[in-house]
Protein backbone atom coordinates (compact mmCIF):
# COMPACT_ATOMS: atom_id res chain seq x y z
CA UNK A 1 0.00 0.00 0.00
CA UNK A 2 1.48 3.34 -1.06
CA UNK A 3 1.92 5.76 1.82
CA UNK A 4 0.92 9.41 1.64
CA UNK A 5 2.88 12.10 3.49
CA UNK A 6 1.25 15.54 3.27
CA UNK A 7 3.78 18.36 3.43
CA UNK A 8 2.65 21.04 5.87
CA UNK A 9 4.63 23.59 3.84
CA UNK A 10 1.39 24.30 1.95
CA UNK A 11 -0.83 24.24 5.07
CA UNK A 12 -2.17 27.30 6.93
CA UNK A 13 0.54 27.96 9.52
CA UNK A 14 -1.82 29.99 11.71
CA UNK A 15 -3.72 26.78 12.51
CA UNK A 16 -1.29 23.93 11.93
CA UNK A 17 -2.87 21.67 14.55
CA UNK A 18 -6.26 21.83 12.80
CA UNK A 19 -4.64 21.38 9.40
CA UNK A 20 -2.93 18.18 10.56
CA UNK A 21 -6.17 16.89 12.13
CA UNK A 22 -7.91 17.51 8.83
CA UNK A 23 -5.64 15.10 6.91
CA UNK A 24 -4.62 12.70 9.68
CA UNK A 25 -7.23 9.93 9.18
CA UNK A 26 -6.30 9.41 5.53
CA UNK A 27 -2.50 9.59 5.52
CA UNK A 28 0.59 7.82 6.87
CA UNK A 29 3.25 10.42 7.76
CA UNK A 30 3.25 14.17 8.35
CA UNK A 31 6.06 15.65 6.23
CA UNK A 32 7.83 18.65 7.77
CA UNK A 33 10.01 20.81 5.50
CA UNK A 34 12.84 22.54 7.34
CA UNK A 35 14.72 25.21 5.31
CA UNK A 36 17.54 27.45 6.40
CA UNK A 37 17.95 30.11 3.70
CA UNK A 38 21.42 28.69 2.91
CA UNK A 39 21.07 25.17 1.54
CA UNK A 40 17.85 26.33 -0.14
CA UNK A 41 16.71 29.89 -0.83
CA UNK A 42 13.73 29.74 1.54
CA UNK A 43 13.39 29.82 5.35
CA UNK A 44 10.66 27.84 7.08
CA UNK A 45 10.50 26.24 10.48
CA UNK A 46 12.65 24.79 13.25
CA UNK A 47 12.39 22.39 16.20
CA UNK A 48 9.92 24.67 18.03
CA UNK A 49 7.20 24.01 15.46
CA UNK A 50 7.93 20.27 15.49
CA UNK A 51 7.52 20.35 19.27
CA UNK A 52 4.26 22.30 18.92
CA UNK A 53 2.68 19.87 16.44
CA UNK A 54 3.99 16.70 18.17
CA UNK A 55 1.01 16.40 20.57
CA UNK A 56 -1.46 17.06 17.75
CA UNK A 57 -0.92 13.74 15.96
CA UNK A 58 0.13 10.17 16.58
CA UNK A 59 1.40 9.83 13.00
CA UNK A 60 5.16 9.69 12.44
CA UNK A 61 6.69 13.14 11.88
CA UNK A 62 8.83 12.85 8.75
CA UNK A 63 11.31 15.71 9.01
CA UNK A 64 13.10 16.75 5.81
CA UNK A 65 16.14 18.86 6.65
CA UNK A 66 17.06 21.21 3.81
CA UNK A 67 19.80 22.82 5.85
CA UNK A 68 23.57 23.08 5.96
CA UNK A 69 25.36 21.36 8.86
CA UNK A 70 22.32 19.23 9.77
CA UNK A 71 24.45 17.41 12.39
CA UNK A 72 24.11 20.50 14.59
CA UNK A 73 20.32 20.15 14.75
CA UNK A 74 19.63 16.40 14.74
CA UNK A 75 19.39 16.17 18.53
CA UNK A 76 17.05 19.17 18.78
CA UNK A 77 14.69 17.72 16.17
CA UNK A 78 14.63 14.28 17.81
CA UNK A 79 13.94 15.86 21.20
CA UNK A 80 11.17 17.91 19.59
CA UNK A 81 9.50 14.68 18.43
CA UNK A 82 10.78 13.84 14.95
CA UNK A 83 10.40 10.13 14.09
CA UNK A 84 12.22 10.16 10.77
CA UNK A 85 14.98 12.62 9.92
CA UNK A 86 16.29 12.92 6.38
CA UNK A 87 19.43 14.80 5.40
CA UNK A 88 20.65 15.81 1.96
CA UNK A 89 23.68 14.01 0.55
CA UNK A 90 24.69 17.38 -0.94
CA UNK A 91 24.82 18.94 2.56
CA UNK A 92 26.77 16.13 4.24
CA UNK A 93 30.45 15.54 3.46
CA UNK A 94 30.45 13.02 6.34
CA UNK A 95 27.24 11.23 5.49
CA UNK A 96 27.77 7.99 7.45
CA UNK A 97 28.48 10.00 10.57
CA UNK A 98 25.23 11.99 10.34
CA UNK A 99 23.14 8.91 9.50
CA UNK A 100 24.64 7.11 12.50
CA UNK A 101 24.00 10.16 14.69
CA UNK A 102 20.30 10.21 13.73
CA UNK A 103 19.99 6.50 14.60
CA UNK A 104 21.88 6.92 17.86
CA UNK A 105 19.43 9.65 18.85
CA UNK A 106 16.64 7.11 18.33
CA UNK A 107 15.06 8.27 15.07
CA UNK A 108 14.84 6.59 11.67
CA UNK A 109 17.40 7.92 9.24
CA UNK A 110 16.84 9.02 5.66
CA UNK A 111 19.09 10.32 2.91
CA UNK A 112 17.86 12.76 0.24
CA UNK A 113 19.16 13.44 -3.26
CA UNK A 114 18.41 16.51 -5.37
CA UNK A 115 17.20 16.02 -8.95
CA UNK A 116 20.72 16.52 -10.35
CA UNK A 117 22.42 14.12 -7.93
CA UNK A 118 22.92 10.58 -9.26
CA UNK A 119 22.03 7.48 -7.24
CA UNK A 120 25.71 6.46 -7.34
CA UNK A 121 26.47 9.27 -4.85
CA UNK A 122 24.47 7.49 -2.16
CA UNK A 123 25.21 3.86 -3.04
CA UNK A 124 27.73 3.46 -0.19
CA UNK A 125 25.08 4.44 2.39
CA UNK A 126 22.10 2.46 1.08
CA UNK A 127 22.59 -0.42 3.49
CA UNK A 128 22.46 1.98 6.46
CA UNK A 129 19.32 4.03 5.83
CA UNK A 130 15.65 3.50 6.61
CA UNK A 131 14.50 5.83 3.86
CA UNK A 132 15.75 7.26 0.58
CA UNK A 133 14.05 10.47 -0.50
CA UNK A 134 14.29 11.29 -4.19
CA UNK A 135 13.60 14.96 -4.83
CA UNK A 136 11.43 15.29 -7.92
CA UNK A 137 11.79 19.11 -7.83
CA UNK A 138 14.65 21.29 -6.65
CA UNK A 139 13.97 21.79 -2.95
CA UNK A 140 12.92 25.17 -1.60
CA UNK A 141 9.29 25.77 -2.52
CA UNK A 142 5.95 24.05 -2.83
CA UNK A 143 3.97 24.01 -6.05
CA UNK A 144 6.80 23.40 -8.54
CA UNK A 145 6.65 21.15 -11.60
CA UNK A 146 7.73 17.52 -11.45
CA UNK A 147 11.10 16.80 -13.10
CA UNK A 148 10.65 13.66 -15.24
CA UNK A 149 14.35 12.79 -15.42
CA UNK A 150 14.23 11.74 -11.74
CA UNK A 151 12.07 8.69 -12.53
CA UNK A 152 14.93 6.38 -13.64
CA UNK A 153 16.58 7.06 -10.25
CA UNK A 154 13.51 5.71 -8.45
CA UNK A 155 13.71 2.59 -10.61
CA UNK A 156 17.43 2.21 -9.95
CA UNK A 157 16.86 2.49 -6.17
CA UNK A 158 14.13 -0.13 -6.34
CA UNK A 159 16.41 -2.47 -8.28
CA UNK A 160 19.33 -1.95 -5.89
CA UNK A 161 17.00 -2.68 -2.99
CA UNK A 162 15.92 -5.99 -4.51
CA UNK A 163 19.45 -6.91 -5.53
CA UNK A 164 21.00 -6.33 -2.09
CA UNK A 165 17.92 -6.98 0.04
CA UNK A 166 18.07 -3.43 1.44
CA UNK A 167 15.21 -2.37 3.66
CA UNK A 168 14.75 1.34 2.90
CA UNK A 169 11.50 2.92 1.81
CA UNK A 170 11.63 5.04 -1.33
CA UNK A 171 9.96 8.40 -0.85
CA UNK A 172 9.51 11.04 -3.51
CA UNK A 173 8.91 14.74 -2.97
CA UNK A 174 7.80 17.52 -5.27
CA UNK A 175 5.19 18.03 -7.97
CA UNK A 176 3.10 15.06 -6.88
CA UNK A 177 -0.39 15.01 -8.36
CA UNK A 178 -2.48 12.64 -10.46
CA UNK A 179 -0.24 11.25 -13.20
CA UNK A 180 3.13 11.98 -11.60
CA UNK A 181 2.08 9.99 -8.52
CA UNK A 182 1.38 6.90 -10.59
CA UNK A 183 4.60 7.30 -12.60
CA UNK A 184 6.59 7.26 -9.34
CA UNK A 185 4.72 4.36 -7.77
CA UNK A 186 5.11 2.31 -10.96
CA UNK A 187 8.84 3.06 -10.80
CA UNK A 188 9.05 1.75 -7.20
CA UNK A 189 8.14 4.62 -4.85
CA UNK A 190 6.55 3.63 -1.51
CA UNK A 191 5.84 7.05 0.00
CA UNK A 192 4.47 10.11 -1.82
CA UNK A 193 4.99 13.55 -0.31
CA UNK A 194 2.35 16.01 -1.49
CA UNK A 195 1.99 19.62 -0.42
CA UNK A 196 -0.05 21.79 -2.76
CA UNK A 197 -2.01 18.83 -4.18
CA UNK A 198 -3.47 18.30 -0.69
CA UNK A 199 -3.32 21.49 1.38
CA UNK A 200 -4.18 23.90 -1.44
CA UNK A 201 -7.45 22.05 -1.98
CA UNK A 202 -10.69 22.93 -0.15
CA UNK A 203 -11.58 19.30 0.41
CA UNK A 204 -8.44 17.52 1.56
CA UNK A 205 -10.13 14.12 1.96
CA UNK A 206 -11.23 14.29 -1.65
CA UNK A 207 -7.75 15.41 -2.75
CA UNK A 208 -6.06 12.50 -0.95
CA UNK A 209 -8.61 10.03 -2.28
CA UNK A 210 -8.07 11.28 -5.80
CA UNK A 211 -4.29 10.80 -5.53
CA UNK A 212 -4.81 7.29 -4.14
CA UNK A 213 -7.31 6.28 -6.80
CA UNK A 214 -5.00 7.61 -9.54
CA UNK A 215 -2.49 4.90 -8.56
CA UNK A 216 -4.69 1.99 -9.64
C1 LIG B 1 10.09 21.20 -1.52
C2 LIG B 1 9.61 20.44 -0.31
C3 LIG B 1 8.37 19.69 -0.56
C4 LIG B 1 7.19 20.55 -0.94
C5 LIG B 1 6.40 19.79 -1.94
O1 LIG B 1 11.29 21.80 -1.21
O2 LIG B 1 10.60 19.51 0.13
O3 LIG B 1 8.06 18.82 0.50
O4 LIG B 1 6.38 20.91 0.13
O5 LIG B 1 5.39 20.60 -2.42
P1 LIG B 1 4.48 20.20 -3.66
O6 LIG B 1 3.83 18.91 -3.36
O7 LIG B 1 3.51 21.35 -3.75
O8 LIG B 1 5.39 20.13 -4.86
ZN1 LIG C 1 10.06 17.89 1.61
UniProtKB/TrEMBL annotation:
Pathway(s) it belongs to: Carbohydrate degradation
Signal peptide: none
Molecular function in Gene Ontology: D-ribulose-phosphate 3-epimerase activity; metal ion binding
Membrane-spanning ranges: none
PROSITE patterns given in the database record: RIBUL_P_3_EPIMER_1 (PS01085), RIBUL_P_3_EPIMER_2 (PS01086)
Single GO biological process annotation from the record: pentose-phosphate shunt
Domain of life: Bacteria
Xref: InterPro entries: Aldolase_TIM, Ribul_P_3_epim, Ribul_P_3_epim-like, RibuloseP-bd_barrel
Binding site for a divalent metal cation: 31, 33, 64, 173
Active site (catalytic residues): 33, 173
Annotated positions binding substrate: 7, 64, 140-143, 173-175, 195-196
UniProt cross-references to CDD domains, sorted A to Z: RPE
UniProt cross-references to SUPFAM superfamilies, sorted A to Z: Ribulose-phoshate binding barrel (SSF51366)
Cofactor annotation: Fe(2+); a divalent metal cation; Co(2+); Zn(2+)
EC number: 5.1.3.1
Cofactor binding description: Binds 1 divalent metal cation per subunit.
This protein's UniProt keywords: Carbohydrate metabolism, Cobalt, Isomerase, Manganese, Metal-binding, Zinc
Assigned GO CC terms: cytoplasm
Catalytic activity, reaction form: D-ribulose 5-phosphate = D-xylulose 5-phosphate
Function, in words: Catalyzes the reversible epimerization of D-ribulose 5-phosphate to D-xylulose 5-phosphate.
Protein family membership: Belongs to the ribulose-phosphate 3-epimerase family.
UniProt protein name: Ribulose-phosphate 3-epimerase
Amino acid sequence: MTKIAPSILSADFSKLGDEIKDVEPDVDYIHVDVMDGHFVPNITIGPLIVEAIRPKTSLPLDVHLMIENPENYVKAFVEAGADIISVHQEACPHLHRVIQQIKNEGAKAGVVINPATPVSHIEPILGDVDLVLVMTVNPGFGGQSFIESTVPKIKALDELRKQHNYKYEIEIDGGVKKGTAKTCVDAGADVLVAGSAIFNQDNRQKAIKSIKSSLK
